[in-house]
Amino acid sequence: MLTSRVPATMQAAVVREIDGPFEVLDRPIPAVAPGHVLVRIAASGVNPLDTKIRAGVAAHAQHPLPAVLGMDMAGVVVQVGEGATRFQVGDEVYGLVGGVGGLQGTLAEYAAVDADLLAHKPKSLSMRESAALPLVSITAWEGLIDRARAGTGHKVLVHGGAGGVGHVAIQIARASGADVYATAKPSQFDVVRSYGATPIDYAASTPADYVLEHTADEGFDVVYDTVGGATLDASFVSVRRYTGHVVSALGWGTHSLAPLSFRGATYSGVFTLMPMLSGKGRAHHGEILAQVAKLVDAGQLRPLMDTQRFTLGQAGDAHARVTGGQAFGRVVVDVA
Fold first, then answer.
1. 0.85 exceeded by the pTM?
2. pLDDT tens across 253-292, in order?
3. Which residues constitute the domain of residue 89?
4. Domain tally for the chain?
């Protein structure tokens, strides 16, 4: 095992019970299994799903308590386990690595991580910015590229274009050569435009209105729903007949497929946590993040960052900023 100097203990923000407070405690440094690396975490991204796991309302993403929460991170490799040949001590990495299914989360100074889940972080971003990207980028990529094969000549509609997955989906679609449209509030139009999409006021226009205006009533080649519920139903009537494809990252409810079937179109769901929960397909997440880093360093993708900053001891405040709706952009906890 290749290693640099590592202490015996670390600080971690631990939650003991559902909706419980974060307690910063000393914990043993985790052991590094074959195929894994030990990462000194510099920053931990906070996702809405993290707050739902803490609140005990994410049945699809259970994490036994007491636990360290947090799924996204960026940091530096300090130990390399047997067989983890893609990384060496000192490498700066980022990834979606834990916080569900019993895997230690990222609100800690160190984490032992399956190397397949990691990629070298974008060179042009800080640790904080890099930690904002893994979950939302993988979710956007799996929907647009893996499922829908969005590309040149396609008209892509992203529902929730100013959100975490939405603003990244716009940029990935644009980098793939698509013409992109995005639903948003009028107050978010400038952000949507800055990422290269045409904004649509979802409250002031119906699907029939924007399908007619932007596609001459043909429908969008790809519709990516990042909102769920009624928005997924609206997606089914907004997609192009025969060749169109709807993707949803929140297709958890019960929906009628009749509108989609009558258009002869197709549908895919995205469940980003599957590789962490099942242990299968993890290498593809690392591959996606390597491609995302290339887009970032080529100037084709950048995260929308919330201006508020938090330390490990303020993890509860970071969660409150997400749940309270004050955040505009990605919330990140500075761990180092």
1. yes
2. 999 999 999 999 999 999 999 999 999 999 999 999 999 9
3. 2-132+275-334
4. 2
